[in-house]
Automatic annotation (TrEMBL), chain B:
Keywords: Oxidoreductase
Keyword field contains GTP-binding: no
Protein name: FAD-dependent oxidoreductase
InterPro entries: BFD-like_2Fe2S-bd_dom_sf, FAD/NAD-bd_sf, FAD/NAD-binding_dom, Metab_Enz_Cyan_OpOx_G3PDH, Opine_Oxase_asu/HCN_bsu
Biological source species: Micromonospora costi
Top-level taxon of origin: Bacteria
One Gene Ontology term of the molecular function aspect: oxidoreductase activity
Pfam families: Pyr_redox_2
Cross-referenced PANTHER family: ANAEROBIC GLYCEROL-3-PHOSPHATE DEHYDROGENASE SUBUNIT B
Length: 107, 502
């Protein structure tokens, strides 16, 4: 059965056993945070938990490595602004950019 | 204090699995800690077995070696002879005055509610260690390498093998070394168009290398298999070529490649190749944070990596600390399995357990042979000497702290940073989340290049030394001073980003 997650309100499906990063990439979302200084989009780079480029807020817990977190049904990804490294601001994905308001209640 | 076990094996890849199983079968009490949820390491990374499909293991080399080791591990776990702690990473290891070792671990993934923290898993104590921390893709900065859609070759492979996810539709696989081939063929098999494999060095000349041929004949057959697959999928293989720049606005759109000479200096016009995925690999960097915490002796290997020096039975310079696999020199999975077994048997013998001396001698010979082959490979696929010349002023070197090549050059020219350590202090490369894992090799190389000399262990060590092996929740640090405090009681979720202030 396919898991149903959301990235800033946008539905993201995932196969059981996939990581959050894999599900985002498969959904056509290559980036989900921006850098602190340059405001540049970042997604997955090393894919094995070394580089911390793929940090994301998962169910309100900030700064999780998307490449290591297993996808789960109902997961809310990329919400809120608690992350140290700019997980709150737009991450270069047009569909996601306008939908941040809808997640504001989540804490 | 926790129960003191005979040996803690860190890492459940080829070396660690072999070491844990061998040590336990020789009668030693073993705990096996691994960051991943599944054993196998990066080499035998596979889809979650709970959701496995037939065909998941196509293209996996030595899969039967893995399943053999895994079955033995399962049996030993069932007998209570191996305590397996998956999904936990060691962030601090210390040697106590009485000669035992204390290891602090934390959950790899903290997003899932951990419930009551299990103190028995948080602190481990051992009379000996076999450290098998493995390694990861070595990276060289190039303009545009921070664009989404640029991944490490190993990351692309991990997404494919571990998550059945091709990371793009049209790929360029670039860098150097034989590992580019399984990545390219894996992508092609998954339906991705591989626009080119871009190899900085010459052809598969090592097939004709007499050392390579006699040391590891199986490797030649493996390479011929990849050559056939490349031909079948019509993957263009460009040698003596490098990616000069990755192009794109918010994500990868193309790469610009150029032919280069032996040192990596461009010799011809540049050419653009459209792609939405770029996989970079320049060989591998061993993970040395845990061995370095214990103060082991190190050296620079043929491939330019900082490695742990070990004797003929995998003993490091620190009493009771054995090291096996990539941390002693990048050499691949087959060699790592030999080293893991050798370390375990040597330890068993030292502890008066039955260990056949003939087997130990045979394994030591296999390790020497494997090392000769690895050295031949390193010489065939070097990082081109002139690679720093590919950088432009705005090229990011440190992705975490967004430190550019220009920043490093100014720290050298204007502030007098004459070595990697000073560069790190003044310009902050390697001070971010990844603690220099990604940019350490490059920063050391740039430091040396700015001084017009080659890299030394003194350049590499400050970028490989970490006061904590991984960023950990602050609560874990607080708990160090008062072991009885339940760490989960703290409500902070802040993490220490760059804890390795010099």
């Amino acid at each position: 059965m396919t898991h149903r997650m959301t990235f800033r309100g946008v539905p993201v499906p995932a196969e059981p056993g996939q990581s959050v990063a894999a599900a985002l990439i498969a959904a056509g979302i290559p980036a989900w945070r921006t850098t602190r200084r340059g405001g540049r989009p970042r997604g997955v780079f090393c894919g094995i938990g070394i580089c911390f480029d793929c940090l994301i807020t998962v169910d309100g817990v900030p700064d999780q490595r998307a490449c290591l977190v297993a996808a789960a049904d109902g997961m809310r990804l990329g919400d809120d602004g608690a992350g140290l490294d700019g997980t709150a601001t737009g991450a270069g994905h047009d569909a996601a950019r306008d939908r941040e308001d809808s997640d504001a209640a989540h804490d | 204090m926790p129960h003191t076990t005979d040996v803690v094996v860190v890492g459940a890849g080829p070396a660690g699995l072999a070491a844990a199983v061998t040590a336990a079968e020789a009668g030693l009490g073993v705990a096996l800690v691994d960051t991943a949820a599944q054993p196998g390491g990066q080499y035998w990374r596979h889809y979650d077995p709970a959701h496995a499909r037939p065909g998941d293991h196509v293209g996996h080399h030595g899969w039967r070696v893995f399943t053999g080791l895994r079955d033995r591990l399962d049996a030993l776990r069932a007998d209570g002879r191996v305590r397996h702690l998956p999904g936990r990473q060691v962030w601090l290891v210390t040697r106590e005055p009485e000669g035992t070792f204390t290891l602090r671990t934390t959950a790899t993934v903290t997003a899932a509610p951990e419930g009551q923290p299990d103190d028995a898993e948080r602190t481990l104590s051992a009379r000996a260690l076999v450290l098998c921390p493995g390694g990861y893709d070595r990276q060289l900065p190039v303009p545009g390498w921070d664009l989404p859609g640029v991944l490490t070759a190993g990351g692309v492979q991990a997404l494919l093998k571990g998550h059945r996810t091709p990371a793009g539709r049209r790929a360029v696989v670039a860098g150097t070394g034989p590992f580019l081939l399984p990545v390219a063929t894996g992508l092609a098999r998954a339906g991705v168009t591989v626009a080119a494999v871009v190899e900085a060095n010459g052809t598969l000349g090592w097939l004709r290398d007499p050392v390579g041929a006699t040391s590891a004949p199986g490797k030649g057959i493996e390479a011929l298999g990849y050559a056939a697959l490349m031909a079948r999928h019509r993957v263009p293989y460009r040698t003596r070529t490098v990616v000069r720049e990755v192009l794109g606005a918010d994500r990868v759109e193309a790469v610009r490649v150029a032919r280069v000479d032996r040192d990596g200096r461009p010799t011809g016009p540049e050419e653009e190749i459209a792609a939405d995925l770029v996989a970079f690999g320049w060989g591998f960097t061993p993970s040395l944070e845990l061995p370095l915490m214990l103060g082991v002796d190190t050296a620079v290997d043929t491939d330019g990596s900082l490695v742990v020096t070990v004797d003929d039975v995998q003993r490091s310079s620190v009493e009771g600390v054995y090291v096996a696999g990539e941390a002693t020199g990048v050499g691949g999975a087959a060699l790592a399995v030999h080293e893991g077994r050798l370390a375990a048997l040597a330890l068993a013998a030292a502890r008066g357990r039955p260990a056949d001396p003939a087997t130990i001698r045979r394994l030591a010979r296999a390790v020497r042979r494997g090392r000769r082959f690895a050295t031949a490979m390193h010489r065939t696929y070097p990082v081109p000497a002139a690679w720093p010349e590919w950088l432009s002023e705005p090229t990011l070197v440190c992705r975490c702290e967004e430190v550019s090549y220009g920043d490093l050059r100014r720290a050298h020219d204007d502030l007098g940073a004459e070595d990697a350590r000073t560069l790190k202090m003044l310009a902050r490369p390697g001070m971010g989340w990844c603690q220099g894992r990604v940019c350490g090799f490059a920063t050391a190389g740039i430091a040396a290049c700015l001084r017009g000399r080659g890299s030394t262990p003194e350049d590499l060590r400050p970028l490989a030394t970490r006061s904590l092996a991984v960023p950990v929740p602050l609560g874990e640090l607080a708990a160090l001073t008062e072991d009885t405090t339940p760490v989960g009681a703290t409500d902070t979720t802040l993490e220490e980003g760059g804890p390795n202030g010099e």
